[in-house]
Amino acid sequence: MVSKKGTLTNLKKSPYGKEEYDSTLEREYMVELERDTAVKSWTKKHGIKIPYKFLLLTKHYLPDFLVEYKDGSKEIHETKGLPLMLWVTTKLKGQTAEDFCKSKGWKYKMITKGSQAFYGKI
Questions:
Q1: Can you say how many angstroms the Cα of residue 73 is from the centroid of all Cα atoms in its chain?
Q2: Closest CA to 60 of 46, 48, 44
Q3: CATH class of 6-119
Q4: 58 touches 51 (CB < 8 A)
Q5: Residues contacting residue 99 through CB under 8 Å, at least 6 positions apart
Q6: Across the strands, what pairs with 58?
Q7: Domain ranges of the chain
Q8: First to last CA, the chain
Q9: How far apart are CA 106 and CA 75, in angstroms?
């Protein structure tokens, strides 16, 4: 599995001007968010921790991105490649995040790519 970490700098739509990424899929998506004309701002440094239950334990889900659009709407976006989409915890986190977003009037989106994002050479 390819997991490339790093920092993107000179970002116009991040309030911090730079953001850390944990995978090539995240890096690619950050570039997409920067180019999306409907996006007002986005960040990974949002401080959102969503509690969820797994095997009778309370865990905390830290979503990848908080995105605000020019129309004032907000969304949580999670990037996941094909292998991780099959995990039970991914489904639990997604369901919990949808409920969290609904309570705030936001939307939740899962941003996916196939195995190439994780196994291809980038």
A1: 16
A2: 48
A3: alpha beta
A4: yes
A5: none
A6: 53
A7: 6-119
A8: 12
A9: 5
**The predicted structure's pLDDT at residue 112:** 83
**Residues 110/25, Cβ–Cβ less than 8 Å:** no
Distance between CA atoms of residues 105 and 17, nearest Å: 27
Taking the C-alpha atoms of residue 26 and residue 43, their distance in angstroms, rounded to an integer, is 12
* 3-state SS class at 81: strand
Residue 30: predicted pLDDT: 94
**Per-residue pLDDT at 3:** 66
| Closest CA relative to residue 24, chosen from 13, 32, 34, 16 | 32
Contact 11, 19 (CB under 8 A): yes
| CB 75, CB 109: distance < 8 Å | yes
pLDDT for the residue numbered 84 = 62
Query: Taking the chain (122 residues) in consecutive chunks of 10 residues, what is each chunk's mean pLDDT?
Result: 82 97 91 95 97 90 96 94 69 93 96 54 36
According to the model, what pLDDT value does residue 88 have?
74
